[in-house]
Amino acid sequence: MLALTRGRRRALAGAAALALVITSCADNGTSEVDEDIAAEGGELLLWGWTGVYEDIAEAYMEENPEVTVEVQNVGTNEDQYTALQNAVAAGSGIPDLAQIEYYAIPQFAIADSLADLSELGAEDLEGTYTPGPWDSVTMEGGIWGLPIDSGPMAFFYNAALLEEHGIEVPETWEDFAQAARDLNEADPDVYLAADTGDAGFATSMIWQSGGRPYQVDGTSVSIDFSEPETQRWAELWNELIEDEVLAPITAWSDEWYQGMANGTIASLTTGAWMGSNLQSGVEEGHGDWRVAPMPQWEGEEFTTAENGGSSIAIMEDSDNKELAYDFLQFASNGGGADLARDQGVFPATVERLEDEDYLNEEVEYFGDQQVYQVLAESADSVAEGRQYLPFHVHAISIFNDTAGQAYVSDTTLSEGLEEWGEQSAAYGNEQGFDVE
Amino acid sequence: MTVAAPVAHVADPAESSQPPVATPPPRRGKWTGWAFVGPFMVVFAFVFLAPIIYSLWLSLFRDQMVGGNQFVGLENYIQAFGDQQLWRALGRVTLFLVIQVPVMLGIALLVALAIDSGRLHGKNFFRIAVFMPYAVPAVVATLMWGFMYGTQFGLVANFNDMFGLNIPSPLAPEWVLLAIGNIVTWQFVGYNMLIFYSALRVIPHSLYEAAEIDGAGQWRIITAIKLPAIRSAMVIATIFSIIGSFQLFNEPSILQAMAPNSISSSFTPNLYAYSLSFAGQQFNYAATVAIIMGVITMLVAYVVQLRGMREDMR
Predict the structure, then answer these.
(1) Is B258–A253 a contact, with Cβ atoms under 8 angstroms apart?
(2) Which residue in A298, A433, B101, B261 has a CA-CA distance of 20 to 30 Å to B172?
(3) What is the pLDDT of residues B116-150, one digit of tens each?
């Protein structure tokens, strides 16, 4: 059989492609207590598909010559999760550490596959990270991983294209909807946004709007897409679908990159990691693209959401947890994190995000705009209380079977979301959860 | 070893004329035979039987995220029989089978007859050209067609722009099965053509000469000589195509990335089994689906073969 990695490479993938100059690794991260453990030496195995992990591991080994960290790429997101689940089920071949995206953490945490880092002292780290990523790694009274990057959402747009058609940057979603219609009317070949149904985008939009469709408490789960906050987004978006003002181009496809390069797709509302992705994937857009704050719901406090991002977790079966934790600290909030930021990874730590040099950096691609200020502001305003299903990986895989139908048939997005919820619930119940 | 087998063989008939009492040599011979087929049997057991037995074993359990692994007997099968998604997927490939296979085999037959007729200029080039798509890996072929199907920047878009047409997206839910059928036909016409053509080549020329003497025209030669002569080849090609249709996977799986709303995770039975085990961690149920599909495919292929054989004898 053919194993296909669906193009949903979030977060770090693009960042890794954009290998900037690797600066010498700063020697400031690890705490003194931990250094003894690293001095004793040992071997660690890390599973991850993002290129920057190799460099982090090398930098760590340079600092701690007694330790060997091996990075293995066993597949991108779902493929790796499958491999990881298989290894855990078999009880052998389990790595010490694994890259796990935020949405997949509950799935592994609930299965007791991950080590609770609060036992290793991670509780002290609250405040080290921006709220979104920290929220995503803490649940059920434990800390299940440390953030590597984050994806606070912003409005990435082709300023030249919008200007050409006299469209202003939308500040609210109502403005956005109007702009989408106006732009498509001005030129039927140009769309403000492209969307064919993306679970990550939809749940982030619902999150920003204030909907909390998933409530998880241990093995009892409730799924509800009928909240008014959820519905107002679904209705607004459904109108855009019905009016055919969203480009029917699937994210991460070849047409998608082409569409951004040739001026068919004028904007993207997505995670901060898109910045480095644009720079590497849409070279033609150099100088044309800008970043603006995520559109808001009128009259409400400035709120954003996160989309994508990865953490590294320590596996419960690792027999080298303390050493693994030492490495994890280095990667997440030590020298490794500096290295990652220099390579274009959007940081999840407050320290790196609020660094003046970083914030004031003028990015040439974005016409010398200080884009990190916009993104940092977004990171600061992420709505709290997001939860993912403990079987979110599967839920994502059936999003297009259900909610996606709104894009190609008479089904409305609300109906599609409801169906998505029902099918997710059915799966959850089959898996032994108590879902309503 | 090499000597033992013929000796045993020769000993056999000699003994059969005697009363069946003295039997030591044949007994030795029995094991010698096994020694010859042994290596094959070992491979056969590991490569063919073991996976099937393992799948059967898997299909009797259910592994839950909460609650762990437990023996459930035939529950997975009961669930499968009531599983709308599975039967809809089966319905879809059956529809595909009923339409795509005759079209593909018809074209293949036409091409084979044309090449065989000897009236074609550049016969060899034509044969290679038709066969060429079969040499293109299915993944590449599907990606290529996928790009052409694109209504934004693909060939379809170019057609629409150039001629002011409004061809609907071949990847829209209503058309996607047809779009896949087109890819599969493009890929396999050459392969089937080659099967038919090689069968046509072994028809003795004397038959054609006799027919000509009798005053038969080309059409008559085709219906009375060529088609009956290659009937078994057609049965084989049909069985291969049926199996291929039921196992449809590569094309929808790749196009799914381009048209996620048109191709569901249970579009074909194989894709369903794949989604179940890889996105859903339901290995046990996936094994059940695989076994059910295997049995159905075998049954259909067997019926077609029986029918084909019977008509062959007529």
Answers:
(1) yes
(2) B101
(3) 988 888 888 999 999 999 999 999 999 999 989 98
Q: Which chain A positions have a beta carbon within 8 Å of B141's beta carbon?
A: none
Contacts of A400 in chain B (CB under 8 A): 260-261, 264-265
The dihedral through the CA atoms of A379, A382, A384, A385 has a sign that is negative
Residue A358 exposed, middle or buried by CB count within 10 Å (0-12, 13-18, 19+): middle
Of the candidates A372, A405, A424, which is a domain's last residue?
A372
Is A216 within the bounds of a domain? yes
Identify the architecture of domain B78-313 in CATH.
Orthogonal Bundle (1.10)
CATH number of residue A122's parent domain = 3.40.190.10
Q: What is the pLDDT of residues B185-207, one digit of tens each?
A: 999 999 999 999 999 999 999 99
Q: Do B172 and A433 touch (CB under 8 A)?
A: no
Of B249, B266, B278, the CB nearest to A82: B278
Give, to the nearest 10 degrees, the angle between helix B123-135 and helix B84-116. 160
Average pLDDT over residues A326-355: 92
Q: What gap in Å lies between CA A70 and CA A87, rounded to an integer?
A: 17
Task: Tell me which of A325, A350, A372 is where a domain ends.
Answer: A372
Question: Which of 91-110 (A) contact B at CB < 8 A?
Answer: 107, 110
Helices and strands, number each (H, E), in chain A:
20, 15
Q: Residue B313: its pLDDT value, please?
A: 52
Domain with CATH 1.10.3720.10 in chain B: 78-313
Sheet strands (E) in A201-251:
214-217, 220-223, 246-247
* CB contact A254 to B (< 8 Å): yes
**pLDDT surpassing 60 at residue A393:** yes
Q: Is some CB atom of chain B closer than 8 A to the CB atom of A330?
A: no
pLDDT band at A76 (very low <50, low <70, confident <90, very high): confident
Whether A430 sits inside 8 A of B64 (CB atoms) is yes
A390 contacts B65? CB cut-off 8 A: yes
